[in-house]
Write a structure and sequence with these properties.
2 domains; elongated; five-stranded parallel beta sheet; Rossmann fold; alpha/beta; Phosphatase 2c, domain 1
Amino acid sequence: MEALLEEPATAMTTRSRVLIADDQSEILEALRLLLRHEGFDVEAAGSPAGVLASLEGSAVGGEAARFDLLLMDLNYTRSTTTGREGLDLVSRIRALDETLPVVVMTAWGSVELAVEAMRKGVADFVLKPWDNSRLVGIMRAHIAEGRARRVERRAVEEENSQAREIQQALLPKTIPQIPGCEISAAWRPARTVGGDYFDVSRLSKNLLALCIADVMGKGVPAALLMSNLQAAIKAMEPGEPRQISHRLNRLAFGLTGPGRLISLFYAIVDLETRTLTYTNAGQNAPLLVRRDGSFHRLTEGGPPFGAVEDWAYEQSEIALEAEDRMLLYTDGISEARAKDGEEFGEERLLSLLRENRARSAAEIQRSILEAVGWSSGRVFEDDATLVVLGVKD
């Protein structure tokens, strides 16, 4: 290891905040002196637990308190030559901060160890004893790259935040409630924005239009296509569900061509005649449960939009009865996974709907969200939306 410089080097334009970690106090002190001499703000940790505590505290402190780089040893008291404890620590660090540059040091290096470290997200690999100039150069280079990545990530996050606000503005701000029925809905994208959509609009005193849709895929591409679909639905003259579906299918081909599929269920509820007229274009079949527990799956219609050009969609009519409960949902609900990988499934949704059929639409929605693990527990790999319709006496 080189002797420490006698005179301080020129400080970086913006002082870098680094965390150093090693279970040997003399190593920590040597690194601390070197890096402070080179213009770094330095914090030290003597164990993996200390590293995690410092990083968690930095995250709580906000952007200004974050470290610019972590320089850490791979070998600690439980594994002094294999580097396993350090590699496990890198995995935990990545879970806390995906953008933090991590440079690892070890006196027991090997090609295999270096390769595994890089696979876990390590930026660079340095052998002990180190060369002061080379180490500082490596750190400064990765700090510059890390800052650039964080700036880019903040810009993307800001764009996504704005896109989410725009998408949420396209969804109903309030759910129309007309005499004779009640409706409750919930929407959750798998990412910042998503390809699910629902709408409830009052057409007249006794008529209500109801739809739920799902674009194949997730994220911004799905959200952009869904926003076009939403705008098209809003701009269309009212018509029968099969007519609406035919127009939207042609629009889907015009926007993306074949292969980009959109599923949609569109229905008109007539509270005067107590009928529901619908077309199902490849969407999960809504579940309609009667007061006595009998049920129907609403499947009539045709394929998803974008599958077959100029498809002649069919529609069906079903009588609504007092205390009927209907559930509309997308794949994100039925395919939500427990920690063991098991999907929630349609049968559980049906059982919940039947068990809670005497409750209000809002209460049914809350029961389903709780069971699916909306706030915790299950993993949502897809956008998730549900709408509950209740027919009153």
